[in-house]
Design brief:
Radius of gyration: 22 Å
Number of strands: 0
Oligomer: single chain
Distance between the termini: 64 Å
Helix content: 40-55%
Order of helices and strands: HHHHHH
Largest sheet: none
Amino acid sequence: MWTKAQSELLNVILDHLIPPRADGSAPGAGALGVAEFLPTATPFAEDPVGTVTAVLDHVSKTAPDFLSQSAAAQVAVLKATEAAVPAPFACLVRLTYMGYYSRPDTRPYVGVGAHPIHPEGYPVPSESAESLAELTAPVRRRGQIYRNA
């Protein structure tokens, strides 16, 4: 699908889109292997491989030395790429998020269990009395808008 050089470039780009945590407690999208998800994303994008390749081609043409540049310089190249090929870049960002956050092994990184949502669900803390009062105030002010049965 992608050459070795394109794969290396893609993983660095993915790590910029969803970077690893500074403390090492969560990997970036590239390190996690989100690149493997991208070709399978046809239900979410018409041509995910072509879309990603368009971004890779633009980066390669405008910054052939991208991998050896500083992180700040890489970000500048990615911002320029986003401006030059906005639709493919936006699609890559969306698919990256989908590929990263849909993985069960990323759930603990964002504070939810690794188990499926159903049938057990996740623990959800109750709202405080003040929060509930604030949330329901518009409804209570409106008053009864139904007939008593």
